[in-house]
DNA sequence: CTCCTGTTTAGAAGTTTGTCGAAGTAGTTG
DNA sequence: CAACTACTTCGACAAACTTCTAAACAGGAG
C-alpha cells in the first residue's frame, strides 16, 4: 500500500532540469539546506509513531521557541511536513512523498540510459 | 566497478542526525538549493561525455560570466563537481559519490527497521 | 473568569547570499 | 610581444535569511 510513487523530475543527471522544475525543487531544497531544519526533519521522521511534538523539538536545541516555530513553518510551507494540534500540543509529521521527490532527484544514475534500477520495497 | 558506495548518514527518517552531520550535509544542500545551481548541476551531469564547458553553461543563462563562475565555485567548494582546464576551456563534471550521498539521505524508508532495500545496479 | 503553559505572529538587528561591473589570470593566435 | 578569448577574483550593494524580544493566540486547570 505504501506505493512510494516517485514522480516529478528524472534524476538530476538524466536530462537538464527545466527552469520551472528547478525553481520548484529549489524551494524544497532551501527548506532543507539548514542544519537546524535538517535535524528537525530527522527528529520528526525518526520519532516514535512518526510524529513529534513541538515541545520535544524545542528542548533539543539551544534556540528560542519562536525560532523553532519559524523553522517548522519553513518546512511546512515547503510541503515537507504537516502539523496538527491535539489538545495542548502540536504534532508534526513528515510528508513522505515530498522527501521521496528529493530522493528521486539524487538517485544514482550509473548509465545514461534508463537501466533496470528498481527499489525492492514491496515484494508484492 | 561502479560500486556506488553510499555511506555517511542513514536516511533522514531512520535516526536523528547528529549536529555535525547536519552541518556537513547542510553545506552540500545549500549549494544545491538554488535554481541556477540546480540547473547547472543538471546540465553538467546530463551533458554528453559527462562533462560540460563553462562556455556552454554561461550561454544557457541570462546571467553574466562572473555570476556563473561564482555558482560553479559554490558547487565545487561543496564537493559536488570538479573542474579541469584543457587548453582554452574549462570543463566541469559531477562527483557521483557526493550526489549519491544526498540520494541516500532522502532515500525512501517505509519501515523503521532496515529491511531488504537494495539497489540492483551491478548484476554481477 | 483568571492564570498558566505551549505555540505562533510581528518587528528588528545582524549576517549571508546573489548579482553585477571592473579588473586580473590563463591560454591561443597573429 | 601584442591582441584576443575564456574564465576567475575583487569590491560593492540590494535582497533574503537567521535569530532574537515582545506580544498575541489557544487550550487546560483552578
Automatic annotation (TrEMBL), chains A, B:
<dbReference type="InterPro" id="IPR036388">
    <property type="entry name" value="WH-like_DNA-bd_sf"/>
</dbReference>
<dbReference type="Pfam" id="PF01022">
    <property type="entry name" value="HTH_5"/>
</dbReference>
<dbReference type="InterPro" id="IPR018334">
    <property type="entry name" value="ArsR_HTH"/>
</dbReference>
<dbReference type="GO" id="GO:0003677">
    <property type="term" value="F:DNA binding"/>
</dbReference>
<dbReference type="InterPro" id="IPR011991">
    <property type="entry name" value="ArsR-like_HTH"/>
</dbReference>
<keyword id="KW-0238">DNA-binding</keyword>
<feature type="domain" description="HTH arsR-type">
    <location>
        <begin position="17"/>
        <end position="114"/>
    </location>
</feature>
<keyword id="KW-0805">Transcription regulation</keyword>
<protein>
    <submittedName>
        <fullName>ArsR family transcriptional regulator</fullName>
    </submittedName>
</protein>
<dbReference type="InterPro" id="IPR001845">
    <property type="entry name" value="HTH_ArsR_DNA-bd_dom"/>
</dbReference>
<keyword id="KW-0804">Transcription</keyword>
<dbReference type="InterPro" id="IPR051081">
    <property type="entry name" value="HTH_MetalResp_TranReg"/>
</dbReference>
<dbReference type="InterPro" id="IPR036390">
    <property type="entry name" value="WH_DNA-bd_sf"/>
</dbReference>
<dbReference type="GO" id="GO:0003700">
    <property type="term" value="F:DNA-binding transcription factor activity"/>
</dbReference>
Amino acid at each position: 500500500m505504501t506505493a512510494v510513487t516517485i514522480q516529478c523530475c528524472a534524476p538530476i543527471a538524466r536530462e537538464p532540469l527545466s527552469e520551472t522544475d528547478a525553481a520548484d525543487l529549489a524551494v524544497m531544497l532551501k527548506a532543507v539546506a539548514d542544519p537546524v531544519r535538517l535535524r528537525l526533519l530527522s527528529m520528526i521522521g525518526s520519532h516514535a509513531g512518526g510524529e513529534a511534538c513541538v515541545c520535544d523539538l524545542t528542548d533539543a536545541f539551544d534556540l528560542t521557541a519562536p525560532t523553532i516555530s519559524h523553522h517548522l513553518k519553513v518546512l511546512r510551507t515547503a510541503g515537507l511536513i504537516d502539523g496538527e494540534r491535539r489538545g495542548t500540543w502540536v504534532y508534526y509529521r513528515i510528508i513522505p512523498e515530498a522527501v521521496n521527490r528529493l530522493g528521486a532527484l539524487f538517485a544514482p544514475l550509473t548509465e545514461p540510459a534508463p537501466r533496470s534500477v528498481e527499489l525492492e520495497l514491496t515484494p508484492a
